[in-house]
Amino acid sequence: MFGHEAGDRMLIALASELAKSFGQEMSCRFGGDEFLAIALDERLDKVQAKSYQILSNLKKQCYHVSIGIKQAKADHLNVSDLLYQADKAMRKSKEEFYKKAESGRRAR
Fold first, then answer.
1. Which of 45, 41, 15 is nearest to 30 (CA)?
2. What is the residue-wise DSSP string for 70-103?
3. 71: which of 10, 37, 77, 90 lies 20 to 30 Å off by Cα?
């Protein structure tokens, strides 16, 4: 709808927000439009607060992203499973956004 340049600006904005919140060394682009941030030894509520702040900052720039959070204890760390569960949570967030957006359109 807005072209590749607009998409690139959104990806740069997201990368910037992740780096500000989680540190440049703990955040990276994981795939085409997927990013990964790692928070070691942080409470879940603090990670959630950082995530909400990222969403808020991006919304001010007219961007919407979906975030999936998954927590694991160091002695139960299976990276593949952790990534799968975080991706699953992100997809659920995205699905909820689109359901909400669709019901908002119907109400107009």
1. 15
2. ----GGG--HHHHHHHHHHHHHHHHHHHHHHHHH
3. 10
Contact 68, 89 (CB under 8 A): yes
Taking the C-alpha atoms of residue 75 and residue 78, their distance in angstroms, rounded to an integer, is 9
Tokens of 51: 């995530």
CB contact at 8 A, 43 and 51: no
Enumerate residues 6+ apart whose C-beta is below 8 A from 97. Answer: 64, 66
Helix axes 44-60, 4-22, angle to 10 degrees: 150
pLDDT in tens, 67-102: 888 888 777 777 888 888 888 888 888 888 888 877
Contact 63, 14 (CB under 8 A): yes
